[in-house]
Each structure stands twice: as structure tokens, then as C-alpha cells.
Amino acid sequence: MSGGTQVDNAIRFYEAKSRDYDGTWHSNFTKQFISRLDIQKGQRILDLACGTGLLTFLEAEKVGLSGSVVGIDVTPGMLAVATRKQEQDAEKYSNVTFHNGDILHLEETMALQGKTFDVITVASALVLFPDPNAAIEHWSKYLKPGGVLAVDATHPRNLVSGMVLERVARRLDLPMPYNRSWSRSEASLHTVLESAGLEVEKVETIHNQAGYGKRYYDVERWDDFFVENVIVKDVANTFANNEIRRKAQAVYKEEWEKLAIDGKVEEVDAVFLGIARKSADGSRYVPETVSSEAIFKGGCRCGRVQFTSSQRPSDITLCHCRACQQLSGSAYLAFVQIPRFALKYIGSSTLKTMKLSEVAERTFCSSCGTPITMEYLYDADRINITMGSIDTYSMSCRIPKVKKHIFLREKAPWVESPDDSTERWGTAEFAHLVATKN
């Protein structure tokens, strides 16, 4: 079987969970997952990373005995539980077959050779793989023309202690058995699905995945979670070396404290679910291209500063730092990010640069005062544009949504932050890069 390291880590992690897996939140989540799918009688379904068959058996009931469901998983213990459940109701689930296999190398599973499916489902597994785009492209080969892929990805605040651990590993250049860093919003999953050549039908947020909604941890509890994740749950032995563990402990504390707002770290019980379709002729879906070179334009209030962008913007980050409050005369500044090369000024006679610190430069119109951009000196490839200076009517792409609040420790006391399930940072995820420049 290929992909030894990732596969071995998955087996070690899930083998120990096999016996009690059905008693966890996964049982309820698979019911939420399938309720979003339009499964028809007689369809052929491929359930990848099927585990103990929680979703597989629900799908089997939907397609009926005229349809079929194939479950693939790499963990023997999970498949053993699934097989026992099938044997207990053999007639009802005679349309189900299970196979041991690596879902990143489906060509190695003999039972799948030459077969395609109406629906492919992947529940609670996408973030286990280093390259989600490559994984989805691989799975799409097993979709019929017009077939549907359904997959979920974690909210950035879901299981927050694990998210912090991943950030620690990235900073220390250590391997991790999962990759959550790309999954930031519904738009992130939309982009991955579309980049893999599928046409996205919808991406939605499923709240209460595990049933607790939201919860808050005292900032002082960082060490409890460090011990739990690094000592108890380190199945890949990433932090086995004492020197690495010592460095990781300091970085874990720093990353945990970045999230703290009023002494609490928020955890959000949510995931993003995406449903995408293979084109009817089986070809790769290519999004419509923008006819004009400029995807959006904008400028200052008086019109002396004008710009265009040749690239789509990111979703919106609301910066609550004191500098942004003072420069905007309000509670925060809203920014979107684009590649630096995409920004072109078509009028800049009054554009001035302002440097309030050693870490960033801002620009504004010296005539009317409109703030235009902010560029961090550690990241010369990207630039942040104030959302208020963009002419939204000019956008030939979707209008960005708010995805993140940063520097909430400096939030204006007269403002209540909306309960919008976006990312929230007491400082910012890049704060350690800024600190090294001060």
C-alpha cells in the first residue's frame, strides 16, 4: 500500500478509536451530512474513509437494494466493526461491500478497477491529507459524468487545540499527520473543489457538529492542551525529542495566547460541507473567465487616487487594532488581500505613504484622507486593500464576506462583536512575524 507515513499514522490513530467510534459525535454528524444530499434509489455510491460504516449504512438505506454502496477505509479495526454490523443485518445491507484500501491510491483497490459512481462521499477525512486539491482530483476520476462529490472540512476554530498544534509544527518545520491550515471559510472549500475541476453546487456551514455549539477555555489552560496533544496523542512521534518538545512548548503557549480574547479562547463546533458535480460530458470544469483585465476597481473619496486589481480578492479581515481605529475614525478597518503584482494605480497624484511602525507601511490619499492599503514588510508578495475604497459595483467576482477578526484585544469598548462564527484572534496569526521586526 502506498503513502506509508500518512497511512501508518491514520491506522495508529484510528485503530485505537475503532471500538468506541460509534458512540462519539460522528454518529450524529453522519446524519447531518446525509440530510444535505439528494440520494436516489438505485444509485451507486462510493464512501471513502468509511470507518465503521456510519455513513455507508445510511447511504445503503437511501439507494435501496436496487443500488449499491462501496466503503473504503485503511484501518482494519474500523472495517472489522463495519463488517460485524453488516453481518448482524445481512439481508438489509446486502447492497454494501467493504474493502481495505488507501483512498489516496484507489487504483490499488482491485474492486474499483473500471468502476465509476453516481455519488462519492468523504466525511471527516479531507483535512487528514497534505494536498486536498490532489486528493479531490484523484477521487473525481471515479465519478460518473454528472456525478456528485460531497466532502467536509473543519472550521478553523473546530478542535482548537489541534489547530494550535498544527501551527506549532509549521513554525518548527515539523511534519503533521493532518493539514487544516487551508480550511478557513466556506470560500476555502469552494476554491479547492473548483480547482480540482468540479462545478460547485453549494458550500454551507454545519453548526453543532458534535453538539456543543461553542465553548470557551481559560487562556491559562494552554499547558493542559499541550500535554494532551504533544505527550498523550502524538501518534506520529513528531515531538518525541526533548529539545523539540521544549521549543514546541514555548511556541504552543504563544500561539494559544494569540487566540485569547478577554482571557478566553473560543472553540466553534462547526464544519464546512461542499457539494460539487462533475461535468455532464466528463470534462474538467473551468470557471468562467473575466472578460476584462480588471476584476475590480476602487479609489479614494475625492477621486485623485484610483486603482484596479487583476486578481480576485480574499475574504475580508476586520482589524480592530488601535491604529486602524484612529485612522478610520471608527471601530476597525476592513481589508481584503491580493497579490502585490495585481494592484495597478491609474491615478496616484495624492497617494502618500505612512509608516507607523517598523513592520508595515500604509498608503492614503493626502487630499481627502481615504486609507487605501497596508503592506507588511515581512510579506512583500501580498498587499491589503481597504474594503471601503473598493467600488463593489465594479466587481466581476463575488463580493467578499467577512472571514476573520484580528487584534480583538484592542477592540473599541463601545463595540459588540457579532456572533458570526468567523475566526477571532486576540492578536493575529502573524503576530510572531511582526514581533521579530520590532
UniProtKB/TrEMBL annotation:
InterPro entries: CENP-V/GFA, Methyltranfer_dom, Mss4-like_sf, SAM-dependent_MTases_sf. Residues 296-415 form the CENP-V/GFA domain. It comes from the Eukaryota. The lineage of its organism: Eukaryota, Fungi, Dikarya, Ascomycota, Pezizomycotina. Pfam families: GFA, Methyltransf_31. Keywords: Lyase, Metal-binding, Methyltransferase, Transferase, Zinc. CDD domains: AdoMet_MTases (cd02440). Belongs to the Gfa family. GO terms for molecular function: carbon-sulfur lyase activity; metal ion binding; methyltransferase activity. GO terms for biological process: methylation. The keyword RNA-binding does not apply. This is S-adenosyl-L-methionine-dependent methyltransferase. PANTHER family: CENP-V_GFA DOMAIN-CONTAINING PROTEIN-RELATED, GFA DOMAIN-CONTAINING PROTEIN. Transmembrane segments: none annotated.
